[in-house]
Structures are given as structure tokens and as C-alpha cells.
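#struct-help
A.M.: can someone run this one for me? Single chain, 185 residues.
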Amino acid sequence: MSRSKDKGTAWETETVRVLRDHGAPGAERRALHGNADRGDIAGVVGVVIEDKAEAHQDLAGWTRELLAEMANDGADIGLVWAKRVGKTSALDGYMILPPIVGLRLLARAGSLAPETDWKPAETVEPPAPAQLDLDAVKAEFLALCGSCDAGLPMACACSPRDFRGTMSDLVAEVEALREALAGRP
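D.P.: on it. C-alpha cells below:
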């Protein structure tokens, strides 16, 4: 593991320790989910926590990442918990949050009028799932082989790793799922 990754892991472990010590017994490090990431810490219901233990502070980038993770998680509260250089305790770190989150917290504490449909000026929508083109999959992977499928006296056109059976099963499963979901709102 790299030195940078070691620092990040140590920081996440420290923030989990502090959360547990302060009443969040279910707090734990979360596995990575690529572009569907939902933050670094799980177990604090309704809150996305993104940990940062970097020497260079990129507040705008961190906030964009946090907003995307909040959208992925469906959470309206989130924060970046940044390590303070030269300190090891999470209690000495910084909690950075977008203004919209701060306003929500102030409204919920009774210091502002109740929120209505507040949205940040910069919204980040979760990425749309890639649409699978089943016709292209069928054409590329499920083409008939004259030699194997029809018994014709010709050279085999199958891949050396003939996985048409598996691909056929997968295509059928995707088609069944699409059909089942077609009737849902």
C-alpha cells in the first residue's frame, strides 16, 4: 500500500474512533464504490462523511466530490472531515461543509425558518447507468457459427474461448429484468 493510502486509512480509522466515542457505535469505514461512491464513513444515518488527509487542500474539489456522494447516497447532510497537518486526532481536524448543508443544520436547530425545497447552487446528479445495447452484444457474441451450429463444412468462426452459452444466459437475464422493470413507475 502507498504511503498516501496509509495516511488516508489511518485518518479514516481515527474519524471512526472519534464517531464511536461520541455516540455513533455503528460508524465504520466504507468500501470504495467508484463513481457511485457514497462517502468514506458509513453508520451515521443520513450523513455522508468524506475524509481527507492530504497536504494540499482542494476545498472546491472536495466539495464537488461531497455533493456527488450526497446525491449517490440520497443524503441532504454531508461534510468533509479534513486532517489538520501536524495533528493526529480527528478532534483537531476541520469539518468543511457546503453552505446549503450549514443552512439546513441551522434550520433544523431552529435558528432559521424551516427549509422548503433548498438546493445548492451547484448541484451534482449521480451518473446515469450505462445503457446496455443488447442487439450489439448479440451481434458480437452470439453470432451463429456455420461449422459448429449448422454443421456446414467450413472453418469454425467461434472465439477460442467460446462463451456463447454464458452470454446467451446473461442476455436473457437482462431482457427478463428489463421486462420486469418496464411496468414499474
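A.M.: thanks! The chain has two domains: 3-108, 134-182.
D.P.: also worth noting: The longest strand covers residues 47-52.
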